[in-house]
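Predict the 3D structure for this chain.
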Amino acid sequence: MSQSTTWKEALRDRMPDRLAHEIDIFEGQIELKKQRKLDDKVFAETRLRRGTYGQRYDNGQRHDGLRSRTLNFPAGDLTKGPETLWDAPGMQRIKIPYGGLTPDQLDVVAQTADEYSDGILHVTTRQDFQLHFVHIEDTPDLMRRLASVGITSQEACGNSVRNVTGCPLAGVCRTEAFDITPYADAMTYFLLGHDDAQDFGRKFKTAFSGCEHEACGLVMMHDLGLLARVQEVDGKLVRGFAVYVGGGLGTVPYQAKVLKEFVTEDEILPLAQAVARVFARLGEKRNRNQARIKFLIAKLGIEEFRRLVDEERKILPHDDRWTAYLKNIPSFEEAPSRPAVALNGSDKPAGFQQWFETNVYAQRQPGYYVVTVNLPLGDLTTEQAFRLADIAREFVGETMRTTVEQNIVLRWVAEADLPALYSALKAIGLGEPGAGTIVDITSCPGTDTCKLGIASSRGLAGELRTQLAARNATLPEAIKELKIKISGCFNSCGQHHVADIGFFGNSRRRNNRTVPHFQVVLGGKWRDNAGSYGLAVGAVPSKVVPEVLNTIVNRYANERDREESFQDWVTRLGKKQVKEILDPFTEVPLYETNPEFYSDWGDPREFGIGDIGVGECAGEVVSLFSMEIARAEAELFDAMIALDDGDYVLADQRAYNAMVLGARSLLRGQLVDCSDDPDLIVALFRNHFYDTELFFDKYAKGKFAEYLFERHADPNPNPDEDSAHRLIEEANLFIEAAHACDARVAGVVTGGVAL
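Done. Predicted structure below.
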């Protein structure tokens, strides 16, 4: 492109008209915002709906010299971040529907990462790409370049239908009902920009799965999940889907409910439209903490929600797009670029066998394999991306996909090509084994770039990966398939709720300083499309997490019954024994003894320092809050025991008691007189901490206090397993918020959360 030609002019004939028009509008809105002619809130939503985020800058990574146009960061408190979007670059999310990607598209994403960001492509848990440190002024041209190869960032963020995810093995899987690819593609472009999907109170996530008992699309944790099924109708086998609604992780996870046991393929688009209309009309708008569809369904009940959707479907005006895509389904059938030739004992390079055992999957098409390119922390450099695109062209043509485990797969690899492909990947640093194993850890960005991060999820994930990989050859077979997932805060962007072993970041005030911690979450289920959620069982200092993990997995390997799953072992062990495992790791040494505990993984700075000196007596000065909150945590633990025992009434009551005790701990810590009367405690807490906004986090505001208020005002007379589980999650978050509030009151900086 010549210097006098703009990207808009150069790509005019290569962009779809609709996408080109959307980008032009956004460019105009950026100019209006510069001129202060566009309201801040309106501009925030419009940029988010195009995937453009602000990002965090208090992580010790200044990036001052990133590009010639990068401005110096303002001096002072970096925890506040840049004053405006123009002060520093942000993050750009790029939608990759169901992970489908071609080498040409990967080239263009890499080009934009090379020219506009820090040169790293990050694969997310929704099969997107994210580029960090992107100037907002560059985003229109970045979007145009992506649009020229059929990629959009429209509705990658914001209160919209997010990227539609799907199984990366779709079409080549040995156990799928049928290939979900054309259906996920149709859903993506039907809902993109649809008038009935523009008035949501929060985001809306959709997933497709071809198998019921694998992880695949994780439909059970989605707002809308579609599970492929074949059913006999009028004597003929018909394709269709079981449809689930109201799932979600976030701070408090909800399991999806069955909306329809079977919906024929010609009905999935109008049904999705009807769901969107009901959600847009009845979903919460003012309180973002209650604005996901899971809260609407919990409020209405699945039967009433189903009735409303059925009524809405009846009045929908006909749309030809509902079925027009069906005639194009054959066009999604993939063909190999090279013939299926057997390996037949060919020489194999060093390391090939270990890589083959973990990173190679035999397709249902004889002679062909899917190869997983394992991306540590979901990252690859632009140079790696360019060369990976060339490798794909050579070995598989255009059949690539990103995965929800933050990797990339190459499909239709001929068996005879596997050794050469491995050597090519190894030459560019992408030949690591361990895909899908305990070494392949999922992590959100955490404190590296996320404004909500509390602890360094990526730093911890990197450390655990390094340690596990170093002893991979000696790891017990029983633990090699376990899933580890890490989030930097409560929000489960790292999907810690559905891991065998999950961690999420928090903090504790110890020895008059703030210490990074992680809550340990055990017993989630990745299979069965995220079949069940784990529970937080205790917080440990960040720096002992590797020891905690090692202790847990070794106990499992040594104590499990033959073929006993990790979830079953945790259940059999029980919360009391789990607590006994964690107890030795909860202590924090004095700063003078071991200052390393007071910094986070990958960040040499101290995590946070209070201005209260250390006492001169022989023993540690323990705050009244610390003693009181321990009672709340003990009550919460007893609630978990009651849940395990199937006593849901007792579990509900103890979870509520834990929140009341948590509120009392803050009051007592501030020397506010209060009895054990819950009514008085809640009233005083509201007066001293809620109305004054002392309990408020910058991002969560008063959300966690509302958990207490709602349960106090409206006790559940008949709690069941789901509601008791949910209240325990809420009580845990309330107690975490109490810790954070105490630290803020004491003058210590902590992180924040949002649903």
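The CA atoms of residues 161 and 204 lie 5 Å apart.
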